[in-house]
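Forum > Structural Biology > Help requests

Title: Can anyone predict the 3D structure of Alpha-1,4 glucan phosphorylase?

Hi all, first post here. I have the sequence for Alpha-1,4 glucan phosphorylase but no way to get a structure on my laptop. I'd be grateful if someone could post the structure tokens.
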Amino acid sequence: MLDAVKPETPVTADEAQTSESHHVGPSFQPTHPLALAPVTSPPHTVDGFVKEFLAELNTNAGVTLSRSTVNDQYLSLARTVRHYLSARWLENTRKARETKAKMVGYLSAEFLLGRQLGNALLASDLEEIAEQALAACGIDIATLRAQEVEPGLGNGGLGRLAACFIDSLATMGVPCIGYGIRYEYGIFRQTFVDGRQVEQPDSWLTLGSPWEFPHPEHAVQVDFGGHTETYVDADGTSRSRWIPAWNVLGMPYNYMVPGYQNGQVNTLRLWSAQATQAFDLPTFNSGDYADAVRAQTFAENITKVLYPEDSTPQGKELRLQQQYFFVACSIRDFLDRFILDGDVTTLPERVIFQLNDTHPVIAVPELMRVLVDIEKLDWDEAWAITQKCFAYTCHTLLPEALEVWSTELLGRLLPRHLEIIYRINDEFLAEVRAAYPNDELRARQMSIIGEYPERAVRMAYLATVAGSKVNGVAELHSQLLRDKVLHDFSEYWPEKFTNVTNGVTPRRFIRLANPGLSELITETLGTGWLTDLERLEELEPYAEDAGFRDSFVAIKEANKAKLYRLLQARDGVVLPEHHLLDVMVKRLHEYKRQSLKLLHIVSTYEQIITGKVAADEVTPRTFVFGAKAAPGYRIAKETIHLINSVAQVVNSDPLVKDVLKVVFPANYNVTLAETLIPAADLSEQISLAGKEASGTGNMKLALNGALTIGTDDGANVEIRKLVGDEHFFLFGLTEPEVAELQAKGYHAHEYYESNPQLKATLDLIASGHFSGGDRGLFEPLVSNLLYDDRFMALADFESYLDAQAKVDASYVDQDAWARSAVLNVARSGFFSSDRSMRDYIDRIWHTHPLR
Ligand code: 26W
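Reply #1:
Sure, ran it for you. Structure tokens for Alpha-1,4 glucan phosphorylase below:
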């Protein structure tokens, strides 16, 4: 059946390669003065903007202002802002190509971009002009901002980090192309039905996407399936070639990545799949209409939807198709558009491809295939080039999150790539055996090919063998990669392993999300801090300034009020003022321990309703959750259900007298984060030590003046070191203590037995108190904590509650709290993604800004 739909075997992608043929070529002699003039951007004036906007509305949207819809106006506004950036964009790309600058090729299956309009207006310094121009047209720009649908082309941390990184590289003027996938449907929209997560498709493209530039003329053909054969070529060399069974076309869509008011604009190129031959006329004429378009549907499926898992790969064939598709397009595209003289041996001087986790690692055998099979380089020369062109960032510590692809599936989908991986492994193991003679166990341990439970390619090992550098995303994480996850490799290649602690872009997560705080900082320090964030340390003395603290607190209160207005408008939730805002926003995962947060809430509630403490003795708190669960992750979805059920009971229990509120706004995404994070007082970073690679929400919250309660995990360790122990609520087992307890054998039930408050808390949940008396509903979750508790929530319960008691006590002294909050901001400048980029450039990429 399947074979029928696969298009006939055309020439291979490489033979069909369309190189520069579509450019106008040498005979192109423009004469008109305008055609010779450099591309300019429109006048940076209100009138200039009005003129561009109305032209867009009338000529592009084809409507008059008076008849235009909000969406017409939004699309026209977006396109108008594009005009102001495109001149610089074209100039940048030209300069990068002509100066043969070394570029960063950031390969990522996810880019969680967030809304584009605000950032584009900021980057092009058009905020005021646009607001005035639209007001002059009778339009409130806020209405148009709200019209934008955010491109949810990512799951969480990894995808958002990629977006922060390309923003920083553009702002630093470093030439970079982000390469990824243009999913037709991004991360699902989360709704709650009776407190349970229900996923809705994310049709983000329905109303058009004004920020993308399709370039069908740069389409790339990508092959799949088939078999390989060896042959002897003209000069007697035995070679292999791939005879693919089917192919699709990769359509590129360019997105601008504007630097912050520096005239630099980099490119994000996202690929969308479509059938090489969209429509099969003979089949159609034979009356089988469905069959005639099946190829198109089949091809489009490849980039139809983002896989919503962010830790447990499902090993689905379509996922591998997605990974190979965007990687093959990207490598072909880079060679076509930047290696103009066709001399691929110069590639290492022209690009460093950063592998954003294992998802794009199939790029390694793909480049080898192109260099050996197409460019006819010999293996060793090709391998030397490949090793210089790649570097690998690992973003996880969970063994189950490390991708492996069965040789059965790889051999079927990408037969030539499997051959190449086998050869890479053979040559590598020969080296290992030479270095560790008669230590076959080590060779088997380090082999890229694993044998159990099935023969499979270990993508993290392939990335480590091929990459020039391997880095973790926080000091503790990178140390654990060296000591545990990739120990054999770091022992063999110590110099290959490094660390680059994550960062976040201050443009989006301070300037755009928290304009009040930004103004206060600029009033105090002047401008410049937004691209040199460690200047925030100059705020330290102001922590002692009561006036400054008052302004700081007033801004926090205003941000809270803005959040409350949003939650009331969105979900009809009315929240009491003057509550400590306790925020836990991140993907729902057991290792992140939303369950421990829940135990704290239920324990506090239990003490009030049982009279152990009087409601008015408790520091009034509003607990805010934001979290999506992977649709197939049962325990995560049950935890969401329990959180919503606890919220319902606590929020309506008169005994609690409003001192506790629990809210869980659905569909946590970048846009909601931009309103939530500036309002937070307390940042919950409570993962089991040794499980969270870094975290980036922790950085955003600290930079917006929230105090952190957290374990010594991921980047929390570096946040605590910089802000100071007295301004951080540390608790819990350390990573070595966790390892020791795991080795000794951890029995969660013992903690339940030995801690009466923990017992009372779990018993209350088990009693059905939050499920209308139905004891069975949350029994699986309770027994999972009592008898499994893989992430030791019960072991850290007591220490966590002690830390929360310290939080309660500290918050009473609002001024001392404000002082700590100011110092958190002042001492968190290190967590700018600009600093991360400087580290990547110094330790891994060795590129530099465009001169
Ligand atoms: C389905 C397979 C899969 C496996 C892992 C999909 C996505 C992943 C990502 C690596 C998960 C992820 O987002 N990791 C997070 O990366 C952030 C950026 O470095 C870190 O700050 C977080 O600690 C880490 O969990």
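DSSP finds 35 helices and 25 strands in the chain. Residues 70-98 form the longest helix (29 residues).
Shout if anything looks off.
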